[in-house]
Amino acid sequence: MTASTGTATLTMASAINAGLRRAMEDDDRVVVMGEDVGKLGGVYRVTQGLQETFGDRRVMDTPLAESGILGTAIGLAFAGYRPVCEIQFDGFIYPAFDQIVSQVARMHSRTRGAVKMPLTIRVPWAGGIGAAEHHSDSPEALFTHTSGLRVVSVSDPADAYAVIREAIASDDPVLYFEPKRRYHVKGEVELDAAPSAVRAMDRARVVAAGSDVTVVAYGGLVQTALAAATAAQSEGVSVEVIDLRSLSPIDFDTVVASVERTGRLVVVHEASQTGGLGAELCTAVTERCFYSLEHAPVRVTGYDIPFPPAKLEKFHLPDMDRILDGIDRAMDRPNSLQDRGW
Length: 342
Fold this sequence. Notes:
Blueprint: E1 7-11, H1 12-26, E2 30-34, H2 50-54, E3 59-61, H3 66-78, E4 82-86, H4 97-104, H5 107-110, E5 120-125, H6 140-144, E6 150-153, H7 157-169, E7 174-179, E8 186-190, E9 205-208, E10 213-217, H8 221-233, E11 239-243, E12 246-248, H9 252-262, E13 265-272, H10 277-289, E14 298-302, H11 313-316, H12 320-330, H13 336-339
Parallel strand pairs: 2-3, 2-4, 4-5, 5-7, 6-7, 10-11, 10-13, 13-14
Antiparallel strand pairs: 1-8, 6-12, 9-11
Helix pairs in contact: 1-7, 3-4, 8-12, 9-10
């Protein structure tokens, strides 16, 4: 079975599968490994059919040992392979933290460039599906703080397909965060698109143009931000929405150009606020755009708590109303903080 060609309507899960398949066809050094990725095809069936096509020496079921998965992948990368590891759920990545931070991220620098780590770590990530504990974490800030790693997120099938191929082709280690709530959303995917001179995973993209306020989001919250932009438009507020895509390094050129036009910034993510990626974005934009800002940057995030039980997650995750409230704060319109006397 070969990868499809042309344009296809795919779910995000199917788009990632197609990207993996194309990468494996193009380069026999690409191997896929993880818990249940082979015979089962992954918990979310993202790797379904790959072992049937490429065999169990290229699509390998592993023990339930994330540190072992990453340790093995480091050895494979040393030997010239391009391993793709799946961490079955976001909250399972912590046993592999030492391998990722102490080994994967440092190897290129440690060897003065002699050793590459062309290793992709796929992470089904974040909330919105009513899952159990350890199944809805947003640990991206732990890795954006770690020099030597690329960290990316995707928000739709077309990006999912392009970015997984770019991540596998990269000589740098890449953490590839897949928003679980978006796995079954469909979109058009150009399967034959030629590689761009500017890689999708390096650049943020403006997904809705606006002139009054810039909203920066990534992953599953991009569509929520777009819904908020549509609602704000009905009240006469023009919102520019940016899908960050690359969480490390951040494409500040695109964000700064937008904020210099709008004068206002709202950053949205579902991870906890304190020490989150929003803090870095707000600080860096303030340093670069201080004289263009009409209001202090605003963060709309998850709360500083462990991810709550499934029945309570809707109160934890930023939704359209909370994003609209953040836009109102940036626009000096009536908002929830004023109700508290702030």
